[in-house]
Amino acid sequence: MRVLLLTAVFPPEVRSAAQIMWELAETLRRHGHEVTVLTSTHGDPSGGRSLRDRLVQREEREGVRIVRVPTLPIHRSHAPAVVRGLGQLVNALVYLEAALLLRGVDVTLAYSPPLPLALVGLALQRIHGVPHVLNVQDLVPQYAVDLGVLRSRAAITAARWVERFLYRQVKAISVHSRGNADYLKEVGVPPAKVAIVPNWVDTSLIRPRSRRTQYRTAADLDGKFAALFAGMLGFAQDLDTVVEAGSYLRDHPDIVLLIVGDGVEKARLQEKVRQLGLRNVRFMPFVSKEAYPEVVASADVCLATLQKSLLCPVVPSKLLGYMAAGRPVIASFPEGGDAPRLVREAGCGICVPAGDPARLARAIYSAYTHPDECRRWGERGRRFVRDHHDREGCVALYEALFSELTGQPPRAATGARGHGRARRSAPAARHAARGVPRPAPCARPLR
Q1: Which of 17, 129, 187, 240 is the residue whose CA sits 20 to 30 A from 269?
Q2: Bridge partners of 258?
Q3: pTM, two decimal places
Q4: In this structure, how many other beta carbons lie within 10 angstroms of the beta carbon of residue 59?
Q5: Please, are residues 6 and 124 in contact by the beta-carbon 8 Å criterion?
Q6: Residues 159 and 180: beta-carbon distance below 8 Å
Q7: Cβ neighbours of residue 341 closer than 8 Å, sequence gap 6 or more
Q8: What stretches of 316-425 show up as alpha helix (H) in DSSP?
């Protein structure tokens, strides 16, 4: 099968979206499919400005053909939401021009956000009859509305029109969780068009390891209880709650809150720590994919947080990484979403209400005083992702969906345990989206 993947970010850029799309491309290629990735030259961190850098680039990586086109670096800008949306439309036109020159494509898949990228696949569907799959990772524009990034009533109306237009026109929509499938159903998408394909984690790369790491020594964590947040430091992550939790833990010098990563909020958070006079909150730079497993292994417990205003059913990718490493999780999530449901189903940790630093601090202290319970949480989390979020099993769901849309025979299904009937056919995967009950609130912290 000849697959075209459309994505705004791709390695060597270090973002979770880039990694997901590379792993999808690499796995499909390894399974015998012909894979082309159409992406942006802004994925190159060199920041070159030569004529070559501004033209279409072609390369090959482990059998995957990669076509890069020059676009506006919208995902890196601090421009207003309306300007970002217009920039995404401009970028979609650039992608479309390149996509129309590609030949021999059987099926396309676009990663959203940015949502306008789906217009490229839809154009190929209309012109060449190539079925298009829209992979919805974040619900746009609802995600931006929840965070207060998109406030203009006119802009919200326009964005919702584009959203529903694309949902009606594409052949299939893949989502990573039940809550996202429920949302699509509520806005009128037929359940038969929706496939639940969980995001995956590389359980061979990220696995339980000893806490006695070189990183732990370099970060001056020896003899400390390390509560780790590792990832992008953006608006959605609500790291103010983590920082403020440090104020409640001042009298416990053995407990350190370690924030590893970079992002638009980092400088402000560092200044806040200075103003509060906190010595138990530390920042470390972003690390590479290769170094990430050692960072997580260095932690005693891992933190995952989201803004309480974020009502979209988001499952942070870092959560699966924590679980794969066998580390216990303390989560500060809005209740009723997919992330607390995942923590509850896996039995990998505890949740506290979003935006409540006192409860978060109490949960961290409870974990500090209950090491045996933490060990059991970590073991259950590792077992859960191995059974339900293994890459081979999840990619097999995409292969089944592509097979149904193109009429080409599927590859023999192999992969992780826990996908069972859902892996046998795309309809089975989509049936999982029907009639799913809302998640219950997550468990209360230890006392």
Answers
A1: 17
A2: 228, 282
A3: 0.81
A4: 10
A5: no
A6: no
A7: 178, 179, 439, 440, 442
A8: 317-324, 338-346, 357-369, 371-388, 391-406
